[in-house]
Amino acid sequence: MEHEDEKERRGIQSIEVGGQILVALADHSAPMSLKQLAEAAQMTPAKAHPYLVSYSKLGLVAQDPVSGRYGLGPLALRMGLSSLRQLNPVRLGMAAALELEQRVRHTVALSVWGNAGPTVIHLEESSHPIHMNLRAGTVMSLMTATGMVFAAYMPAKTIERFVEESMHPHAFPHIIGGRSDWKSMQAALQEVREHGIARAIGQPIPGVSAFAAPVFDHNGHVALVITLVGPTGGFDPDWHCANAQALRESAQAISRQLGCSAP
């Protein structure tokens, strides 16, 4: 006798098969010929064509009248926009932070760009003690791993203006980390872009090390930054260590969920 859960999970095979056509279209930025599309969906053109006819009637697929190539249709666009409006980067980030902390056993922080700069909004603490006052609401300087990610990927004019304002002696008195001028930061920011993450080993906060990675939205803008933080003595600083790779994978997964095609 079939188990009740198996009945609930049973789908319609033809929809799942035809769905590969929609996946192929979504993964390619340009319209595709019937042959190309069938190959990408791992089926014959004769098998793919009836699906395309039905999807075209629904508006999921549109065929160019001149080239005959297929692309996503108006209904697919409406569905995509609706999905993006429902997504919450912070909610996705909090779930990812919990999973990442359990995987690497280091404290994970989520940060957004606030009025005073990079601001921590959520913390998943590990059992490894961190000798710094890190909590929701903490503002990080641009010289920290978190700050360097924002500085590397946000519009240069925005960051340059922020740096100029932060150099004022009474600006942002509770910020964590040092200050630096815009020109002297350029080499470090280029390193961030080359590796896709930022690294801070024992500085600007003594005894504390971190990796930080950007999460991008569907427009390619930085939605938030995920940071791994730990005591320097037990923190592998290699750019390609397991912790750094786990962080990259986590940030890229959220970016894809937010509609970023190439994090």
From TrEMBL:
Spell out the SUPFAM superfamilies in the cross-references. Answer: GAF domain-like, Winged helix' DNA-binding domain
A molecular function annotated in GO for this UniProt entry is: DNA-binding transcription factor activity
What UniProt keywords apply to this chain's record, in alphabetical order? DNA-binding, Transcription, Transcription regulation
UniProt-listed GO biological process terms: negative regulation of DNA-templated transcription
Q: Which residues form the IclR-ED domain?
A: 75-260
Name-wise, this protein is IclR family transcriptional regulator
Q: The HTH iclR-type domain covers which part of the protein?
A: 12-74
